[in-house]
Design a protein that fits this description.
Number of helices: 14
Radius of gyration: 23 Å
Helix content: 25-40%
Structural class: alpha+beta
Distance between the termini: 58 Å
Number of strands: 21
Largest sheet: 7 strands, mixed
Oligomer: single chain
Length: 514
């Protein structure tokens, strides 16, 4: 069966001169440092990330940790990536378009080669999707989001175009292809220990929980990297801090506000800060009392002293949250007024719902910096209205799974991701990370309808209404949007300010050593 003709450009990727200009500007932005040191080739860049021990992997479709995603980014490329506002931009796909209703999409491929000399073609993309969607592989992180792809009716159109048919209209397919776990692999790829991709560096070695090494690939489609070699190491927070201060590494990922204050006067270390990179907050279980009553959830939102939480927990390195994810990102409803603290109204709502003077269990952990501090500070704030919160802690290694079923309240955190991805993962009945237990069939149905809308303005309006519903009736108290803090040594240049999981994050091909 032939798919519908592609008669309307729904979403356009930039090709030709425009695409080249965009890539040039991205590369220039990634090369912009805080001085005038000219780019130069050579040397080994050493980067250190939070580790995950034996769980680390070189399988680009099983990535869950930042350290894995960073390693895979050096060896592999995606069809598309995300810019700083979480919109898709061209990578291996130089352009894309859909039919009238968003059920058939065409992606035109660049002239890119794998490290073994094989030229990228449509069969590689189709094989990649088949591998991601394999029902027998339990570790495919993008399988749920890409399950909308009808692989049986998808095909290659020549060697440089792939046509993807969908099971239902979906205007967000380019964004789905730009998220974690979607790297393109060569047809027949099965052995992650022998990683071969189209990325800017060739794989050399990998030891889970320890180290990774890759060397420059001179034939990369976006130009050869500046460094000869990249080494990515795994280490906990204190070790990362010590290593970058001692000059043992050039880049230390995800540092704390306290560390940023410590190195303010250190000329050998500088902080690269990206504003509003994710969200910090609390999740209330909306499937059980008292938070099955939206008034009780609203009471807690009114109790939060957001300014104080940002000041204390984030070290004043962040902006206020308004109980909606994605401030500054595409589709965020900026027009919704900032929620202010109102202890009197919160007390009235607690009394009306029978929650006043109850004990509420708050489940937290040391799984992320600031979780326990935020929980105890909020407990003090809630006590001002007569609400008693009992804070308990669980093991960090299983916290994000345990919190789905444990406690009435829990610590919540999310890095940078597109707003539709956040809604799908965390606010639908089948979402795998639905910590607020928000399960509303009418909400899910409206979300799926919004995803199918090809018109960008109308789709934006619908996503805004969904966000407003969560703001008014949902179980998320998102009190802050932290700055994303990474540390670099004085000899490393070209590190861009970029949210995690975006095109210029962990771009070690565009940095250089002075």
């Amino acid at each position: 069966m032939l798919p519908a003709p592609l008669s309307r450009r729904a979403v356009l990727g930039l090709g030709g001169a425009a695409g080249a200009a965009l890539l040039t500007s991205c590369r220039a932005a990634a090369s912009a440092g805080d001085d005038d040191a000219p780019p130069r080739r050579g040397g080994t860049v050493r980067a250190v990330f939070p580790g995950a021990g034996a769980k680390e992997t070189m399988d680009p479709h099983a990535q869950r940790q930042f350290v894995d995603i960073a390693r895979h980014k050096q060896v592999f490329d995606r069809l598309l990536d995300l810019d700083a506002t979480l919109r898709p931009v061209p990578r291996l796909a130089r352009s894309w378009e859909s039919d009238r209703d968003g059920t058939v999409w065409r992606f035109r491929l660049r002239r890119a080669v794998f490290h073994d000399g094989h030229r990228l073609d449509a069969d590689d993309v189709l094989y990649t999707l088949a591998r991601i969607l394999d029902p027998g592989a339990a570790d495919r992180v993008a399988r749920g989001s890409l399950s909308v792809v009808d692989l049986k009716n998808s095909r290659g159109v020549g060697s440089d175009t792939v046509e993807l048919a969908l099971k239902r209209p979906h205007a967000e397919l380019p964004t789905l292809l730009a998220t974690s776990g979607t790297s393109v692999v060569r047809h027949g790829y099965r052995d992650p220990s022998r990683a071969v991709g189209t990325g800017p560096f060739r794989f050399v070695s990998f030891r889970a929980g320890r180290s990774f090494t890759a060397r420059r690939f001179d034939d990369h489609w976006d130009g050869a990297p500046y460094p000869d070699e990249i080494r990515i190491l795994s280490a906990e927070t204190e070790a990362r801090a010590s290593a970058v201060q001692a000059g043992e590494v050039d880049y230390a990922h995800e540092m704390s506000p306290t560390f940023a204050r410590v190195v303010e006067a250190n000329p050998r270390v500088r902080i690269v800060s990206t504003p509003r990179s994710g969200a910090e907050g609390f999740a209330m279980k909306t499937d059980r009392p008292p938070f099955d009553d939206p008034r009780a959830a609203l009471a807690l939102k009114l109790l939060a002293d957001r300014e104080r939480l940002v000041e204390v927990v984030l070290g004043a390195r962040g902006t206020l949250g308004n109980d909606m994810y994605g401030k500054g990102y595409t589709y965020y409803p900026e027009h919704v007024p900032q929620r202010e603290r109102d202890v009197d109204e919160a007390r009235r709502l607690l009394r009306a719902t029978g929650t006043l003077n109850q004990r509420i269990s708050f489940y937290t952990s040391t799984a992320a910096d600031g979780f326990t501090d935020a929980a105890h500070l909020f407990a003090e704030q809630a006590a001002e209205a007569g609400l008693r919160i009992d804070v308990g802690t669980g093991p960090p290694e299983s916290y994000y799974t345990d919190q789905l079923t444990t406690g009435l309240l829990g610590s919540h955190r999310c890095g940078a991701m597109p707003i539709p991805s956040y809604i799908g993962d965390r606010l639908t009945a089948t979402g795998p990370k639905n910590a607020s237990a928000w399960k509303r069939p009418e909400f899910d149905a409206e979300f799926h309808r919004a995803q199918a809308v090809v018109d960008t303005a109308e789709r934006t309006r619908r996503y805004g209404e969904l966000q407003r519903t969560i703001h008014d009736r949902g179980g998320l108290l998102l009190w802050g949007h932290p700055d994303w803090l990474n540390a670099v040594s004085g000899r490393l240049h070209g590190v861009a300010s970029a949210p995690p999981n975006t095109v210029d994050w962990a771009r070690f091909d565009t940095v250089w050593l002075a």
